[in-house]
User: Which sequence fits this backbone?
């Protein structure tokens, strides 16, 4: 593996303690720099910055004057990547990686002649990630269709040149749902190769341990409304491309089902808050 070519970008909002827990998993000899985009947090990240200063890695801590949302936070991270970097890895403040995850994704990217590679992410309950740590053969899926694009998660690695020509769309409102799916589909439409590691090699911290900051601060009603809106916007934006692969009727049925399920989730959340 060529040395020091990967920049890691992690957007975060009001979650310094959570990021402190996952940060170490993103640091390795394969990473040239770590870029933290604080999207206008109201809480201090001073402890996190002190931790970074004690680590043997170049880092940039960039704080937005106000909360701009995930797409713009990602784009700001891309704008601040060092000129020497050739690849960008996107992480999440509440996701930790298994050892050598970035190295595995980098090597698989080249092996599969791909431009972007994603991996499966598992939501944890306590320490149940242990059962996923094994030496099974890596399972690779090539992402070539609209339906397959939904396998992709926010955790991914790509060639820097891709991000220089394709930005994350800031028109996805409030919780920015579908913003990463939009990016991947746009990338695929432009002829770039995308692959996905089916194995679980990245893990979300248990929700009960990190149910604050970030999207958790959004009112449940507004959150679910923005999820429905963003899903509809995504399908309208890519309508011509999607209808080449599936029927209009199927798309409409999927949108209605999705919206109905999100409304049900909204009422469940509201009942829990009562």
Assistant:
């Amino acid at each position: 593996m060529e040395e020091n070519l990967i920049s890691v970008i992690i957007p975060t909002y009001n979650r310094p303690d959570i990021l402190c827990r996952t940060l170490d998993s993103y640091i390795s000899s394969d990473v040239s720099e770590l870029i933290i985009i604080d999207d206008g947090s109201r809480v201090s990240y001073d402890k996190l910055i002190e931790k970074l200063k004690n680590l043997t890695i170049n880092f940039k801590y960039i704080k937005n004057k106000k909360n701009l949302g995930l797409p713009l936070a990602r784009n700001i991270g891309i704008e601040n990547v060092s000129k020497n970097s050739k690849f960008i890895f996107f992480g999440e403040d509440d996701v930790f990686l298994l050892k050598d995850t970035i190295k595995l994704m980098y090597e698989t990217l080249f092996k599969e002649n791909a431009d972007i590679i994603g991996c499966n992410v598992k939501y944890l309950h306590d320490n149940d990630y242990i059962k996923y740590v094994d030496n099974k053969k890596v399972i690779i899926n090539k992402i070539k269709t609209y339906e397959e694009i939904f396998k992709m998660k926010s955790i991914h690695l790509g060639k820097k040149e891709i991000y220089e020509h394709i930005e994350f769309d800031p028109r996805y409102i409030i919780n920015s749902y579908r913003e990463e799916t939009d990016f991947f589909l746009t990338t695929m439409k432009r002829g770039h190769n995308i692959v996905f590691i089916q194995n679980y090699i990245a893990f979300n911290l248990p929700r009960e341990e990190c149910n604050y900051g970030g999207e958790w601060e959004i009112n449940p009603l507004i959150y679910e409304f923005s999820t429905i809106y963003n899903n509809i916007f995504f399908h309208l934006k890519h309508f011509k491309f999607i209808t080449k692969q599936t029927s209009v009727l199927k798309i409409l049925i999927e949108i209605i089902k999705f919206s109905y399920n999100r409304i049900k989730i909204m009422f469940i959340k509201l009942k829990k808050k009562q």
User: Anything to note?
Assistant: The CA atoms of residues 83 and 231 lie 35 Å apart. The mean pLDDT is 91. The two ends are 54 Å apart (CA to CA). The longest strand covers residues 194-204.
